[in-house]
Design a protein that fits this description.
By secondary structure, the chain is α+β, with helices and mostly antiparallel strands. Helix content is 55%, strand content 11%. It has 23 helices and nine strands. The chain has helices spanning 2-5, 11-21, 30-37, 63-71, 116-129, 145-154, 164-174, 177-180, 184-198, 203-214, 219-229, 237-240, 252-264, 271-298, 310-315, 318-331, 364-369, 374-382, 389-392, 399-412, 417-433, 437-456, 460-479; strands at residues 44-49, 55-61, 75-81, 91-97, 103-111, 138-141, 159-162, 345-349, 352-356.
Amino acid sequence: MQETTGKPVVLKDLANIAVRMKSSTRPNNISDLVRELSADGASSVSVLTNEQNEFRGITYQDAYMRQVFETYPEMVLMDATYKLVDLRLPVYILCAIDGNGMTEVVFVFLVVDETKDTIMKALEVFQDTNPAWSKTLSFMTDKDFVERDVIRTLFPSVSLLICRYHTLRTFRRELTTEKMSISAAQRDICLSIVSDIVYATNEDSYEQQRQRLLNLNLAKVTEYFSAWHDIRHEWVEGLSRLHMTLGETTNNRLESLNGKIKSVCSRYATLQQFFSELRMVLKTLRNERIHKALMLTCKRPTIAVHDDLSAYRERLTPYAFDKVTHQHALSLKVSPIDSSTPEEAVFASTSGLVKTTASQCTCWNFSAIQLVCKHILCYRRLHNLPTSVEDVCSTRWLKNGYLQHCNLKLAATGMSPSLQLSMDVVEQRTASSVLSQAEKYRKAKGICSTLATLCSEPGMATYRERVDVLKKYWICGRTMKGFV
């Protein structure tokens, strides 16, 4: 539709189209669906079956998704959403985070049931079609035991993380007066302590809060919490930050994406209708993100920054540079508690003592996000070391690499980078060439102020001559006649 009309398509347009499509749905036909999804020759579609050759699910990944995951495989967010397909199939979505902090869908699968065997088959397809899975360092999911068991089996080297929101929600659902045989007042105390445990900054803080919970002497609460204690590195904030998280503590990115999908996709649609609407949503979101990436080459920042940050702004994406700017502000307020060794300094932080060199730091910000932290910035400033972005920032955050990746994404969506960029520039110039009356007044007022200054600077003789010239121009303007 966008190619036919030449007009941009927004999510509201898709929602309106979805309403009209409800009355013209087609029956579920797996063979036809596979044929449609794989018609472009670049998409990967697999039908999951059991030993009796019964349909158990379907997986989908197009070229765009595959390229995104190949470039940014470090962290995967995984969650399921429901009530989208008339067969009552849960829709699982796997997402990655690109170099500019944007959420990108990298894999979609639907399953008849959420058993271990079925989910394992779907994720095995993901591994087969994405060799970059071996570079994945962490998976963030909810507390679902089946999903987590499958991920542990297929991705033995990754760090499993539990979404903080789902963690707190699970505690609220399970620590009830009926299930734990406790009073309402005791439940409130337990939930307060559990919240403090979730936000513990280090192991010592965690143990201190855990001991508060154990001191309540509530047998069922203690027994229930023991299962969480064994996996504390997956959900306690200060402990999970030791892994690669890219600064994420929740699956809110994925929840937001699910909301956008549900705003367009019909509820309880056929498989054909669902995938048709899903592909429209993804294409629209991709066009919006590509436009933002292209604007990086059109716009130049005008706000002055500290000299220490100039190289970072030039080399990093805006998302990464914002994080570095925050760390730089913090670096001006910290100082090492031990710098006796020239090659290393020791800083105090909320997570304990951290050791810092010119390019490495043991703090959570550096290990979880792979961006220069306040400690490295302080260390390099104290030792008068030159800025070296590549030494202290992961290549995933570099602007040049991100723009090259965007060219790949443009190719996958059939767009021309050079053509689209030139169109943006032309549109900006055209829009700026037509001024409102207020804008024309401000520009004319500025010129007149400059002329008044030039008239007032010299002596009286020159002053009178220049004023006479201005008067002649003013008279010509009133009579609409030329002046030579």
